[in-house]
Amino acid sequence: MEKILPLLQHILSLRPPQDPFLGEGILVLTDIISSPYPGASVIPQECRVTFDRRLLVGETEESILAPLQQIIRDQQQQDSQLQAEVSLAEGVLTRPDGTRERVKKFAPAWVIEEAHPLVQAAKQGLATLGLPPVVSRYSFCTNGSYSAGVAGIPTIGFGPSCEGRAHTIDEYVEREQLEMACQGYQAIAKAFLLT
């Protein structure tokens, strides 16, 4: 565990790039797990660290791993006993036919222009309900990373509640907000289908 601490300090001091619209490409330490775990007074033989990284448009697997790989190389020059590697987390994708495949957890960033017909239809639909159609961005990852970022399908985000409650332990949605969001979905679909 002591070997990982200096490495973590350098990684945590890394400043991800910024985008004028999306903001900072956030890098957050989410867990540290030693092995064996639980330790039971045993010196760990390895340590696995997980970071969550919010990507920006144009970033690739290689471009996000390269700075981390360089930090590891630099630290290994200072400590020849340090053994470390970095990779993307993987998960298992289960397809509708039941087949399973290991996939990298890589969620590319995406932006849809405000002038896009889908955005304009959404603004028009929400305006019919008296909802102020604000064009913004989420500060967290959504399934739009696949639909827009990978598949190239025009994608927008709209939903109930406030963004600060999403992806938290005590996440909740007030019923009135959910009902208004349902009306919003209907208004967006109607406006888009009529354009």
Key traits:
195 residues; alpha+beta; DNA polymerase, domain 1; two-stranded antiparallel ribbon; 6 strands; 16% strand
In short:
With 195 residues, this protein is of the alpha+beta class. The chain is 32% helix and 16% strand.
Give a structural overview.
Helix content is 32%, strand content 16%. With 195 residues, it is an alpha+beta fold. Helix 1 (4-12) crosses helix 2 (61-78) and helix 3 crosses helix 5. It is elongated and about 65 Å long.
Taken together, the total number of domains comes to: 2
- Output the helix-strand order: HEEEEHEEHHH
Report the average pLDDT across residues: 91
Rounded to the nearest angstrom, the distance between the terminal CA atoms is: 59 Å
DSSP strand count = 6
Which segments are poorly predicted (pLDDT under 50) over 5 or more consecutive residues? none
Q: What share of the residues lie within helices?
A: 25-40%
The oligomeric status of these chains comes to: single chain
Based on CA inertia axes, which overall geometry fits? Answer: elongated
- Largest sheet report: 2 strands, antiparallel
| Strand adjacency order, main sheet | 1-2
Alpha carbon gyration radius: 21 Å
What would you call the structural class? alpha+beta
Total count of helical runs of at least 4 residues: 5
Name the beta content range: 15-25%
